[in-house]
Structures are given as C-alpha cells and as structure tokens.
Amino acid sequence: MAAPRSSSRGSGARGGAAVKGAKIPQVPWREPRPAPIVLVSGPEEVLAERAVAGVREYLRAEDPSLEVSDIRADDYAAGTLLGLTSPSLFGEPRLVRVSGVEKCSDAFLQEAVKYIEHPQEGATVILRHTGASVRGKKLLDAVRAGTGDGIEIPCAAVKRDGDRVDFAAGEFKAARKRIAPTALRALVSAFADDLTELAAACQQLIGDVEGDITDDIVTKYYGGRVEVSAFVVADTAIAGRYGEALIALRHALASGADPVPMVAAFAMKLRTMARVAGNREPSRQLAQRLGMKDWQVDRARRDLNGWNERSLGMAIQATARADAEVKGAARDPIFALERMVAVIATREPFGAPTGS
Description:
single chain; alpha/beta; five-stranded parallel beta sheet; 15 helices; elongated
C-alpha cells in the first residue's frame, strides 16, 4: 500500500528555496510531492525535469492507473484543462503537466486562473514557468497567494562553481554512493558549462561503478574532459589531504595549468579564511559587513576546521613566498608550488616530520 498523499498545507519542506511574497509551501526539487496545483518555477531545466518526474513517480506509486496528460500553454484549445482534470468513469487519478506557462495564450490564462480557485478532486496540475518573461504573472501571483491548494518547487539557475559541486554531491548522496572529494571536483570541472551533461555523467557513474568513485575512475570515464583546476588543488591541500593534493597538483600541471594563477587561487582562499577566522557573527551579517556572499562565509568556516592562528599565518607566509618564486624569484616554480602545498596540507614548516 502506498504512503498517504502529503498535504500541501503547512510549512515548506526543509531546504526549499523561499520565493518572495509566496504564501504557499516552498518545496525542494529533490523532495517533490503532489498537490492539486504544483508550480515548478525558475530557469534550471534539469532541476525542473527532476521535480516533475518526482511528482509523477509519487502519484504512480500511490496508484498505477494514474492518467498522465500534457498541455502546451502557448498552443491551448479552450476547455482542455477542465476536460483533462474532470473525473473519469472509473475515477482514476489524473496528472496534467502544463509546459510553456511563461508564454501562455489568453485562453489558457483565463481558464487556469479560474481553475486554481476550485481544483478538481483527484487531479494534480503541474504548471511549468521558466521565469523567462512576465507572461502568466497573474496566474503565478494567484498560485503563490494561496488562492488554490498549491505548492511551489523553485528551480533557480545553477551558476556558481559551489552550486554545481553541491548539485553533483547531492546526486551521489541521493544514490548512497561515495565519491572522493578530488574526483568530485574534477568531474564538476569537466562539465562546468553544462548542468545537463554533468547530471548525465553523475548518473552514468552511479549506474556503472560498483563501490566508491575515485580519481582514477573519473579520469577513465572523462579523462578527455577533466582538467584539474587550481581550486581543486587548493581545496584538497586546505583540507589537509597532502597525498591527494600533490596528485591533484601534478594532474593540473600536466593539463597545462599556469603556476601563477595556481598560487593566486590559494591566496584568495586563505585570505577569505583569515577574514572570517574567529568571528562568530551570523553568516549573513558577516558577509554583508565584509562585502562577501553568505555561501563564501559558510565555506570559509568549513575550511577553517582544524586550523589555528599559527597554522593559518604559516600558510599565508608560504603562499606569499611561492607567489614571489613563481613570478621569477626562484629557478624552479614547480618546486615552489610543491613546497607551498606541503606547508598548507601538513600545517608544518617545509621538511618537518608529519607523523606519517
């Protein structure tokens, strides 16, 4: 027997992105649930597809006889919405997926606004609006105001590197699959410009690979695309994983990475850590005061785990020395990089015993 259908009333699920002015629950795209009216909003199509598919799977698990219909809001025949949502002879549940609400016709807009005031019993209507235009705003405002019995699943654009890493990490977490941090960053770097391809790559690794996913596996599958970035090296060293950091450094250099921006990446992260260290203000308040983003403060605080004033100062000094050396103050910029990585990853002076 399927689990009872969730109510759409009440507070939004944990992790849902709030939409300004909305009075209905905001539900995360990874945790979609049905309601008489489901507004899937925002430009990120990959997230929207997952949300829509999740609602369909939820309903189908409740009743395999679910009837699924699709409507285009920009090519709409009057009366279609009411016809598809009306109870059938045998009372099967109905799911109506409406695409292109951002370019809907006047006929659809009028009927949809009227429909959400009195949704049909046993019917779920998904309204997909990309936010690309203000067309359909009257309908969105009505849904968000709680005129009908609805929820909203926001699908904001995934643009920042940190957001892409979080997305990919979430893919593996949802599948209960472990992936090495350096392998994760390498995979994200390989598909930095296309979230659809990144999602497909994650699913391929989840489906094909037994056990944990390592750097070697990512290189085997996507070696032609993987280019280890300076931030992958910096993240690994700051986390204290010396061996992994050296491997990542050598992969980056073999891919043609320039030592100067490599050091700059370390310097940027360490400066941020130094600005945040020891401050207990709320992330948003501190970010505003320092001219940073909330997520940058949160990331710096995570990076500071295991660091103290001495080790941070030593790391900053090592980075300043490496910066001068890769710009001509020394003959071997590669050795300068390796020494910097050693100091930062071990948090000890270069050449000191690490205990390993």
